[in-house]
Amino acid sequence: MVTEEFFSLVPSELFRPLASSGRRFYINLLFHLHEVEFSILGDTPSYKRIISSIAHFIDSQHDDLSFQDEGEDLLIPKADSSSSDQRRYVAYSRLVSTGWLIEHRDRYRKIVDFDPNARLILQFLFELSRGEARSYGGAVLSVLGSLEAAWNNPEDRSETLRNAAKSSESFARHLRTVSGAMRKIENEILSQTSLAGLLRQFFEEFVERHLIEDYKRLRTNNNPFRFRSKIIDLCLRFHDEPLKVQQLASAYFKEGRAASIQHGETIVLAEVDQVLRVFESLDESLRIIDVTTARLERRIRNTVRYMDRISDNNVGLLSEALKALGAAQCSDEAPVDAATKVLGFSLPSGPAHLYQGPKERRQIGRQALRIPPRDPAVLAFEKAKRQFFHRLQPTINGVCQYLESQLGTATQISGSDMQIRTLDDFIVFERLRELNFLFSGHLMRWYQVEPINDQVVANDWIVCSDFIVRRTAKGA
Known about the structure:
The strands form two sheets. A three-stranded antiparallel sheet has the order 3-5-4, with no helix packed on it. The radius of gyration is 43 Å and the shape is flat. It folds into three domains: 2-128, no CATH class; 131-302, no CATH class; 380-471, no CATH class. The longest helix has 32 residues, at 159-190. 55% of the residues lie in helices and 8% in strands. By secondary structure, the protein is mainly α.
């Protein structure tokens, strides 16, 4: 069973310091050692260094720490268990005996390290103590980058597909936690009986320590979920590309993550489906976040709107009034005059409150629809634009006139011998290479064009391949 495997991996006394009266001291000490002494990779501290670090941590604590209970468990004399030098050894022995720290020998030097499985638990507790803030944008981009790397280089970057599956699984667990955590914060806020406590709980627990780091970006154009459709499309492309899946499966088999290529294909498709399933089911989690946020904001708005009715000052005034009424020398049935803002039992009435029949609706008369005249400048601009486009389109007569002016009495002429004097000549010349197809081949009744290989027309207007225009028998 999983539980048996778990307890066989974790020391049996591991959580004992965290359940004792000094649990706050021990968790802070573990965090201190985790950040200061064991943060550098490859550096295993010595026994003296750990003892010195624990002593420095104890000296930095301003509380009057007592280790009487710890001393009894570790057979340390009571007279010395609270001394400055002895407390470091008490705390160190406590961590060693409960399995947090392990002692090793490096020749003649004693070194100390965390238990491997205890280190994983401490890392989780450390992240939990820093808050559960999670960047949605970072998680989405991490999955997208891993998928793209696996798609672009399946043989060398196959591990990134597994990283994408793990990241999406972690992201899904976080989203499932969000709904419960949001309801927990909501219950804590709504359980406050005073206005000050309600506002403090709202701003400290909900606003400052919000579960989602970039929550404000979720409803902007640059929100991190704009890559969601790209991730889904990329996952679907894996199903449509069996060759890509086979390449990844082969890499899985070579790297020892699959027993065979067929087994690797099964693993690859399962990991792709896991990413696809997570990002296709995000709507419900986002809906819970939006509904809870809107409900809390509405409660705070109503609280601020009616804060004068539920403020602590009014409660104090009411308490003083009841005390004064109790101290008054009057019978229980005697009336007491008090100026209040409470309305009476009957509503005020007057001419404005009498019944009035519905007012007759005024009929809407007809109005002439006026079409404003168009701006003359706009009309002139449109006319000039039409003339410009008309000029850019060559006509049959324009092409024939230009060719006749260039041919004269000759039967053929090359493009390099033609003259271009005006813009109209250039528009016609530019289309001469397409003369056989221009105007549905209508000009072939009089002219034909043939390209000249390895020759170029170069002038002030254009640089293009040279050609020859000949008269046809009909044209001649």
